[in-house]
Amino acid sequence: MASWWADVPVVAMLVRMAATAAVVVAISWAVGALGPRIGGALAGLPIVLGPGFFFLAHQAPADFAAHAAAYALLSLCATQCFLLAYIVAASRRGPAVSLLAALSAWACGALVFREAPAWPLAGGALFALATWLAWRIGGPFVPAAPRAKGKAGVVLLLVRGGLAGLLVAAVTTAASWLGPADAGLLMAFPIGFTVMALTIHQQMGGPVVAATLHSALLGTLALGSFCLCLALTLRTWPPLAALGAGLAVSMGVTLLLLTRHRWWPRRA
Q: Which are the contacts of 40, defined by CB distance < 8 A and separation ≥ 6?
């Protein structure tokens, strides 16, 4: 047991826990303060994937990390299935049923997309298609002008954020011991979206969580851009340069989405 614990990157786990807790708290606050469309766009920042791939890129060979990034991009296609399923279910059901539907959709999607070839450009095209389809299909289930029923308590958000961080730390730590396919799929598992959706759904209602997650479908384009950039650069660039480029691209996509939100249609 002591030998196993010595091999666990404790600092990495603590950073991943803090990062996940921060994004859950920040996005839940943004939904209440700025509205679901802006909150959903901010949810696409790689605050969880960034630290995960930072440590993976420094612990694993470059080819392994690049391959994992390509599979993480495919895993994000399953994340769009997760978000769409939650949007559809939240229009009629409560948080528990909505989450079960979303997790089932992610599992089915991950099993299918895992069989796709891990080619970065093909994965990027598949992710773009999945995003467009989910955005169009989910639009009719989003109210025109959802209003929050209440605000999530700070203590409750911190507790849920900490639990999400613990899950992310465990998954990403185990992912470094797996092959690149499973490592990439697990790295992009939507734990942050899971806790965020439950928190907003319980505290602010189904219409608000549906609008937030519908916006997050486009916000996830930033995560897809991050993974695509890593998959293309990690084999030939130094890890810090590849990660820096990925973060810059993803932040640029998020800024474009935040600018575009002013003329987004109220209902897709």
A: 31, 211, 212, 213, 214, 215, 216, 217, 218, 219
Contacts of 84 (CB under 8 A, 6+ apart): 105, 134, 137, 138, 217
- 20 within 8 A of 172, measured Cβ to Cβ: no
User: 76: which residues sit within 8 A by CB, 6+ positions away?
Assistant: 127, 188, 220, 223, 224, 227
Token look-up 């939240």 returns: 90
The residue whose two tokens read 């030998």 is: 3
Contacts of 202 (CB under 8 A, 6+ apart): 95, 152
Q: What is the 3-state secondary structure (H, E, C) of 93-105?
A: CCHHHHHHHHHHH
**What confidence tens digit (pLDDT) does each residue in 204-259 have?**
889 889 998 998 999 999 999 999 999 999 999 999 999 999 999 999 998 888 88
Single-letter code of the amino acid located at 95: P
- Token pair for 21: 């807790």
66-115 pLDDT tens trace? 999 999 999 999 999 999 999 999 988 999 999 999 999 999 999 999 88
Tell me what pLDDT residue 158 has.
66
Stretch (H or E) spanning 235: none
131: which residues sit within 8 A by CB, 6+ positions away? 80, 217, 218, 220, 221, 224
* Predicted TM-score (pTM) of this structure: 0.83
Q: Where are the domains of the chain?
A: 10-263
In angstroms, what CA-CA distances link 47 with 24, 52, 81? Answer: 10, 9, 21
